[in-house]
């Protein structure tokens, strides 16, 4: 019996050793395969690094994992384990960044959003489709400036859905009668009647009045993972009940949002067009103004002096199906942006660019083309720098609340590997960035090749 036990013990030990060896070998094979798939060399590319006005010619870029490990003018040795992408003199540039999107509101129409049959499954289906299309247009990172995008972001980060990195704001925070008060005509005030509006239940907005409610709303968004806070500081063109010219939120209410954000190491961005609204917001400590098409030089000087970002757009007066009220409200904003961009550039304000598409999913296909609307005031280099390096600097303002750790918007060693291989030189022909299907030969996000149409 003792001998039988000893034999069993010996066999067990032998089995354990074999299993351990097998596991180590198998693990080594998996690691080797993983290393091979995660090591990529872009060979013989001309680099637009996001900061320099000329291409850096004849470079080799080594990507390992999700970062750029090395850049060299000489070929990398020992590259047998790497996947080599032959650039043949094409342009390697950072992924594009749009700092004012609404992943949900931009993926559904007004009719869909107000439909009584709308559910989470429909929202995910519609937003996932648009998120993948956005990534395939070369936008590897975006800042969502209001809406229920947390679930989409989680699905993208887990690899369930393809899409850009998302810096979410969460529900827009608005006063009663403000730009984020999205109640239907038959919906009463929560404060007086005790029932949240449908938009609030959806996670689209918070209607918050007074310092305490603004603090709570901001903290709710931060709890769910907001990377910055979005407050409505003035009227808007896509809402029915607030004229464009009105100022929203008192100084104390605005300061409450700023205090909540700063306690979490991040910042507040405000929706505002007019000088009055923007001055109040800036004095309250807001770090970024969205829109600003109706501000004056004195307010721009204040923005410049305080180091505040101006994140603006190139809106157009009319799109198919736009209702007459929205068209009329947008008219002064369109006129104002013709003055804003050159004035802000001349005064060297910190500028960022975004699209701000709402309720018109078909408009998303124009995302790249909207960058070209800057040609009237900016050189190709200035446009490319704005939509890569500069926009990335604004994303970095989220500090420790940034959902992705690392440097974006540049092609340099140790930066995150969000890259586009372009057929041609966009510094000479900026039109190329509006042709992503044909001209963006390779798109990489976080070290993963999303698209490759090279032979």
TrEMBL record:
Hydrolase found in the keyword field: yes
For this protein, the parts annotated as crossing the membrane are none
User: Keywords assigned by UniProt?
Assistant: Hydrolase
Is Hydrolase one of the keywords?
Answer: yes
Q: Matching InterPro entries, A to Z?
A: Amidohydro-rel, Metal-dep_hydrolase_composite, Metal_Hydrolase, Metallo-dep_Hydrolase, OTAase-like
Gene3D superfamilies assigned = Metal-dependent hydrolases, Urease, subunit C, domain 1
The segment(s) forming the Amidohydrolase-related domain are 91-440
Highest taxon of source = Bacteria
**GO molecular function of the protein, one example?**
hydrolase activity, acting on carbon-nitrogen (but not peptide) bonds
Q: Entry's CDD domains?
A: Met_dep_hydrolase_A
Identify one Pfam family in the record. Answer: Amidohydro_1
Q: Which PANTHER family match?
A: ALPHA-D-RIBOSE 1-METHYLPHOSPHONATE 5-TRIPHOSPHATE DIPHOSPHATASE (PTHR43135:SF3)
Q: What is this protein called?
A: Hydrolase
Organism of origin: Winogradskyella aurantia
